[in-house]
Amino acid sequence: MSRATHSTAMTGAIDTTAREHLLRRDGQEDICFALWFPSAGRSRTTALIHKLLLPLPGERNVHGNVSFNPAFLERALAEATACGAGAALLHSHPGGRRWQGMSHDDVNTEMGIAASVFGATSLPLVGLTLAGDGAWSSRFWQRMAPRTYTRFDCATVRVISEELRASFYDRLAPPPGSNAQQTRTVAAWGQEAQKDLARLRVGLIGAGSVGGMVGEALARIGFEDVMVLDFDRVEEHNLDRLVYATRADIGRLKIEVMAEHLSARATAGSWQIEPVLGAVYEEEAFRAALDCDVLFSCVDRPWGRYILNLVAYAHLIPVFDGGISVRMNRLGKISAADWKALTAAPGRQCLQCAGQYDPGLVQMEREGFLDDQAYIQGLPKDHPLKSRENVFAFSMGCGNLQLLQMLAMALAPLDQPNPGTQLYHFVGNSMEEPTFGRCHPECQFPGLIAKGDNCGIDALATKP
Fold this sequence. Notes:
This protein is of the alpha/beta class. Helices cover 29% and strands 26% of the residues. The protein folds into 2 domains: 6-168, Cytidine Deaminase, domain 2, CATH 3.40.140; 183-454, Rossmann fold, CATH 3.40.50.
């Protein structure tokens, strides 16, 4: 799959409202505007559809095809300018299926307003077309020179709700061909589902024990495009839990070792993996994460989880998180070993409200306290920061739950995309009933949905 430079994403709520308006019962085309905010990755810009602007009486004319009046455009540009957003034009092709091309009239309409939109917002016009089967297509109209605007098609349009739905432009994101190495995998959910699943760009944030096991699964399932992000090196005490490392790898960067290991095991015909050196709270690594369609949280520090929580809501990239907790009794015997997995995405409980990190420790980590051994040694013996819980067997169980969270959201088996928060108890050998929590009323993250780079939060590391 070629590395995409443009994409579009929206929540399920936006998608539902747009469909109700654009796919008319009388079969005619319809139109509306929307506001969007940018999410600038390292190599991909995503238009996050934030708010729909439905037509008021007299603002558009439905006549088989559809057209809008100047007052509608003026209202859209005024609203976009007032909140620092871009403007998008949405219309329907009710008889179409899957990704839609553009008619001569479509091109003329969008090109005709591209200059007005850029002049008012300093952002490109984004055009979207909704097919009758619910598939979206999208493009950016980029200013290349005075009075010259060039169309850049998106490779994907993603809808994030309980389910993750993606429309792909086959020319930019060609579907994978059949592959004998994946026969058993494809038999489980079918070739059509495999085509869409394998084209998702997956980010592994953390190349430790859990990240290594999730990566192994992704490579063998047939995913084509994986990014792995970490800053650590393989050490001797890692070898009891890194599935991809051997003694010969001691001292090497984890991301390099893992990339070599997965490339030797990948079943995709056009496999590519990008190792990224850094932490997700650093600018370059953060931007690399924004190039992904989904992210696996395989980190054990609060700052990284806080950043991923922000990404899940502000940038509309689902995050599959997991955590392990182990406790010993006074006799040194294991008294509890639990692992939990959940998905952070709009409409679901965020990682902070789910208790996956302590927000009070985020700023302490930013100021360096969590790397201060004197500070760590002064903490109580049972403090989470002093734990050593990434045991191979437990990490394998946690990684498996995270992977299944992703597969459920992407495949929606029998229309059941949300397994809820899952918690397994090794001591007692039991899985709790899943929970489906919501964020606290005062939680800030639901208020950041689809605001992307305009969310107003600067949570990244600053260079000294």
